[in-house]
Amino acid sequence: MSRYFTEDHEWIELDGDIATVGITEYAQSQLGDIVFVEVPDEGKIVEKGDDAAVVESVKAASDVYAPVSGTVIEGNPALEATPELVNEDPEGDGWFFKMTLSDTSELDALMNDSAYSDFVSKL
Q1: Fewest CB atoms within 10 Å of the CB: 21, 81, 93, 117?
Q2: In angstroms, what CA-CA distances link 84 with 28, 35, 72, 92, 120?
Q3: How far is Cα 84 from Cα 101, in angstroms, rounded to an integer?
Q4: What whole-number distance in Å separates Cα of residue 64 and Cα of residue 53?
């Protein structure tokens, strides 16, 4: 599996033809307590950079962008009843949606783990 990151603090992990998307530990720490998450419906087609999901916290509401283009195959059903999963495990059980990619070359523009760590350290 390979994990990539965006400058908007989304992560995407590719496992075969399926990618899982969520927000990073840094993003959830900046948002504070998550109180609501809206995940995309199965079958939604997204282009890189499109609004794909919504996350609301006690501090703010924010869009979650599609890190690459593709088709949503599943939204995380657990987040509707337990949005706090994003705070508890943002890069694990708090994932937002799974998708198939329409253009895997878009991953080349994203950061790897060390590049993202370096990016966050300068914020």
Answers
A1: 81
A2: 10, 7, 22, 12, 23
A3: 28
A4: 5
Looking up tokens 């523009």 gives 109
pLDDT recorded at residue 114:
96
Geometric angle at alpha carbon 121, from 30 and 4, rounded to 5°: 80
Compute the Cα dihedral for 5, 6, 8, 12 and give only its sign: negative
For 30-89, how does the pLDDT look when each residue is reduced to its tens digit (9 = 90+)? 999 999 999 999 999 999 999 999 999 998 999 999 999 999 999 999 999 999 999 999
Residues 6 or more apart whose Cβ sits within 8 Å of residue 22: 10, 11, 86, 90, 91, 94, 95, 96
The pTM for the full model equals 0.95
Amino acid at 52: A
Locate tokens 């400058």: which residue? 7
